[in-house]
User: What shape does this take?
Amino acid sequence: MISEETIKSAYDAIPHLVHHAQMRRLLTYGEIAAKVDRHHRAAQWFLWHIRDEICIPRGVPLLTAIVVNKETGLAGPGWSSEDVSRLSDAEYRLKWEAECERVFAYDGWDGLLQELGLSPVESQVVPEGEGEKEVRGGEDKVVMVPLERVNKRLRAIVAGATQGEPFWARGVASGVERTRHGQVRFQLQDGEYGLACVVLGHMVGELPFEVADGQALMVRGQVEVDARWGELQLVALSLRSWVRG
Assistant: This one.
């Protein structure tokens, strides 16, 4: 029988999981446990409660997918109620990354918090206006704003300007690298102008070719602001090669 402490930890953890989902960020078992004042080994118990009693009954993406092992960068098999341990490493990664994308893309997290009577992390930690400080230097006045809030405002501006519509961009790939999460990142360069591009892990296997430095590409994607670093990037939906004239 599940304990009251585990249930409380689950509800305390949900706003933090939602916050990370909306910021498109993963977090470790140790990090989520620390946020609810529990040992990291206790995380699996309250995460299972979130999976089985909160997410699955409501048909929402599994928040448990975005909590990962610090060493591997992957979620343990307990993120899913299915027996994913039988999958090959490649199949497991593909299924897990697809669920992470569902979590990141879901727009109903605020509604879930409201249904559960929970407050967003922002209002718990940094209410509107708090954390902003006036610093005076001579005749100048500077308002210091927490970077997390700046990042959030930038993302809202970009989302409003692009209206979430994908578009094609053309250029030459440079600085191609594959991350430990299986993503492919590169700079799409067109003369003196450039734009950071990322191919998410679950899309990499569907590419018709391997991206290489110096390759001329047409990239269809959506512009986003990286949740952590605040950098503008094009999240690729499809790629084509092209011949430079």
Remarks:
- The longest strand covers residues 167-178.
- The helical segments are 4-22, 29-35, 43-58, 89-105, 109-116, 121-125, 147-162, 201-204.
- The beta strands are 27-28, 67-68, 133-137, 140-144, 167-178, 184-190, 193-199, 216-225, 232-241.
